[in-house]
Fold these 2 entries.
Entry 1:
Amino acid sequence: MKDIKRKTVADILRHGEELAGSEVDVKGWVRTRRGNKNVQFVALNDGSTINNLQIVFDLSAFSDEQLRSVTTGSSIHVQGLLVASQGKGQTVEVQARELQVYGTANPEKYPLQKKGHSLEFLREIAHLRPRTNTFGAVLRIRHALAFAIHKFFNDKGFYYFHTPLITASDCEGAGAQFQVTTLDLENLPKTEEGKTDYSADFFGKMASLTVSGQLEGELGATALGCIYTFGPTFRAENSNTPRHLSEFWMIEPEMAFYEIADNMDLAEEFIKYCINYALEHCADDIAFLAEHFDKELPERLRFVVENDFVRLPYTEGVRILEESGRKFEFPVYWGVDLASEHERYLVEEHFRKPVILTDYPKEIKAFYMKLNDDGKTVRAMDVLFPKIGEIIGGSQREEDLDKLQARIDELGLTGMEWYLDTRRFGSVPHSGFGLGFERLVLFVTGMQNIRDVIPFPRFPNNCEF
Ligand code: ATP
Ligand code: MN
């Protein structure tokens, strides 16, 4: 091999015209190989783009023996001349001069032989599915969205604030928690009353994985002004749905001095920014997913960024649902926690736009939400999206110590003194929300199942890889 600096497939295809006529060095995995006894064509992919680079092997220069292990899934290193392609489907191709095989992939054993494996099958081999076009596209989009999120908040002067993953409070009420313990489950230490003695546990008390970083986020916001979290979140809810994971990533901005309207403005601007970013930076991947899974995807994405979200009080939403004449699986009445079918009716059929539903009954929302003057509803806001239902849940927070304390007592929550200190000392109006990262990736990729937008999904009865 000559001393030529390696280029990625993305680089070569992007600068094909300038590079044509020069020698290139490229490395990657073989997607397919076809041809005849004079010439063999290899589609090479290195993960840098959905597009493959065509490598042409002239069989007068390479023997069958040399090419034997160049099969689907094998990894190779090629040097050759980049030339304008005569074939359809690519502008440039490499006329191979040197070949090195790094790793073979026995065609009898490599599971990703044919095109068009079902998503269910690929879920069973999640350790290999990043090598498919579909998951390559999804994972590049996922990366772009994560980057866009940091960029959006950084450009706005928000601070990335790290909240703990292990916590000793279960006050979010957002869902069942996974317990964290080093106790010997076969031989638990007992108190005199016969209960598990957590004082002997690692932290000296019961601890679990976080269901939300919000409460700690509020401590950040009431010091730094505007913060956001972006980290893993764990919920042991037994929701075997296409929209729930047991381990997912959540983005939770929290802003001092923001009231509910500011919070809604931010949520709308934020989510539009992320979708726009993906449209601009992931055009090839989105086009691939649209072609193979969801023809309406690009249109749906553009529709969301181009239209104002509807802002509607819960009470109005319930009235629309009641008057719709629609037979829902779950009954709808004032006070009910809306199901996904209700949310999607409002978004997909009634308004045909994303909807921000506000002012929910206090009974169905978390204790920290600011009570409205009616004494019945709280300043909550859920952002509802086509195909997804709830994508964001947020609220203005109760900043009044007495009202917050009363609600905490009513619900019998304990161990909240550290949180209440935000209201005791220099309390301010503040707001925030939580965006489920995978629900955003689901929306932008047009995939149907949340298990297909995270590399290694965790859900009930599944913790592989
Ligand atoms: P849902 O009613 O859909 O279960 P939630 O009301 O429990 O959602 P929140 O507690 O408000 O959700 O969490 C904020 C955001 O986190 C949600 O809007 C959603 O995007 C996301 N989310 C919540 N639970 C999950 C989950 N199990 N898997 C993936 N994302 C989730
Ligand atoms: Mn939930």
Entry 2:
Amino acid sequence: MKQRENFGSKLGIIMATAGSALGLGNIYRFPCEAGANGGGAFLIVYLIVALLMGTTLMVAEFIIGRRSHSNPIGAFRVLEGKKNGWMSIGWLGVVCAFLVLAFYTTVAGWTLGYLGKSVANHFEGQDLGQIQGQFVSFTNHPWLPIVCQLIFLALTAVVVARGIKDGIEKWSKILMPMLLVIMVVLCVKSLTLNGAADGLRFFFTPDFSKINGKVLISALGQSFFSLSIGMGALITYGSYIGSKDNMLSSSTSVVFADTLVAVLAGVIIFPAAFTFGVQPEAGASLAFTTLPMVFQQMTGGYFFCLIFFLLLVIATLTSTISLLEVIVATTTEELHISRPKAAILGSLTTAVIGVLATLSFREGSPLHLNGQTVFDMLDHITALYLMPIGGLMIVLFVGWRMKKADTLDELTNGGTLRAGIRKVVYYLIRYVAPVAIVVIFISQLVK
Ligand code: TRP
């Protein structure tokens, strides 16, 4: 077998996986979903689903990746022999990666635009109306959001073309902890605002009567999206994990960190929203209006705003890297084209769909289907359908198709790690995860 690169260290895997997980999913999409689904009702479901199912699925993907040392399509060839139905998991994942990357880079472009705005000090002294106006005029600008999106894609392609180790690992290790620090600072500020109590009540009061099928599937989709699971991204990362690494503890750390950052984002954004009078259901504009408002109220706000958007751009970049990596790892190994070529081809194809998503965001844009923008449509198809389906197939493969001995062998590193808790994980993969995904999936169909 061809020698593949491995991550340099245990910290390298955790940081690279956290780099993939942490991103717009936590800071932009999570508050959006929580706001739209009743705040506390969403949070409680999300916490259960992310901690329990998230860890389970992450481990399952790592098992496939490390056992096969291959991309999400090749993995099933290695484990199952030539042509077989399981390879469709890989194809589904690659398609999903394209679609996610397409609309993800729309918002990624906004973060770049907002970095520019922070440099130019566009937020100082502005009231809520003006800051909301800035969001509308930026997203409706004839070319700016597209240029930002394309620059972002190009940056991603450059990093991916250079290969896994020096590209992904080096960056994540330094910058992710910095993002966490700045979020804690923001959090402290947000908690001193007038509306803090109302915001926290909205976010932390679990109103069980509000939990319905839509809340369940939204929380499931959000946890898959936020943890980068259900589409083979982590099969690819798992393939770079060395034989001695403790995959369960790495996964737990990543899930914990990812959930922490999402909750922090909520603790920053909801108190701010209630203070300044932004609707928690404001959707896409929520983070991009509340955050500048908070910075404006801070001593040294200019500086914090700048650093924050810089780190957000980088957190987003480590996520787009992992998405493009799925496409590139697959095309280089399956179609035997070079890494740089695959990176260029992959990003160009994404650009075509991505620009449509960005254009669809404009007021009066004709790019609507069924009353949804192309942007929302891509988001819903991937998070509410493709990822849960991919995740289901992954746990079915690891729990039912792989030999129990092989799965446990991976989980315990050939018997060198304690089996107790890892047997529990095996049963979570085999029974709990598939049943939960199917139940949640069906619950949204019955109104
Ligand atoms: N998890 C990332 C976020 O929260 C987005 C992401 C990166 C992703 N890679 C992925 C989502 C793979 C699904 C699959 O921002």
